[in-house]
Amino acid sequence: MTTFLPKDLADGLEEARKLKARKASRLRIEADGQSYPVLRRWEDGFSVERELVPQLRGHVDLFEGSRFLATCLIVASAEAAGEMRYEFKRATPARDTAPVDFQQDEEAPVALLGRPD
């Protein structure tokens, strides 16, 4: 048995799928001062909607809501089903603290208590 859907119905279903993916995902990328929604993300890449996002290349920042996740160097990898897929050449996770340039002692006290006068 074969299933045939009229073109306008198939296009409507595809648009509904994209809308659901956009609403479900809080991920976004920022490139050249512009913000774009991310449809899907996997370990070594992500995808965006081809019609909404211009061709990207180079450095982008990845966010989940307002939380900064990583700074990434990307390249375009494939285009399929209205999505443009990008792969990370490098993805540096964001840190809450500055990196230290010395080795910290694991047994060091967390805080120093003053003497009562």
What's the arrangement of secondary structure elements?
Blueprint: H1 7-24, E1 27-31, E2 34-37, E3 40-42, E4 45-49, E5 58-64, E6 67-80, E7 83-93
Antiparallel strand pairs: 1-2, 1-5, 3-4, 4-7, 5-6, 6-7
Features:
single chain, alpha+beta, 117 residues
Spatial strand arrangement across the major sheet = 2-1-5-6-7-4-3
Q: pLDDT below 50 for ≥5 consecutive residues: which ranges?
A: none
The overall strand count is 7
Helix count equals: 1
* Alpha-beta classification: alpha+beta
Q: How many strands, what sense, and barrel or not for the largest sheet?
A: 7 strands, antiparallel
- The mean pLDDT is 84
Ends: how far apart? 89 Å
Q: Give the overall form.
A: elongated
Q: What percent of the residues sit in helical stretches (DSSP H or I)?
A: 10-25%
Radius of gyration: 22 Å
Q: What proportion of the residues form beta strands (DSSP E)?
A: 35-45%
Order of helices and strands: HEEEEEEE
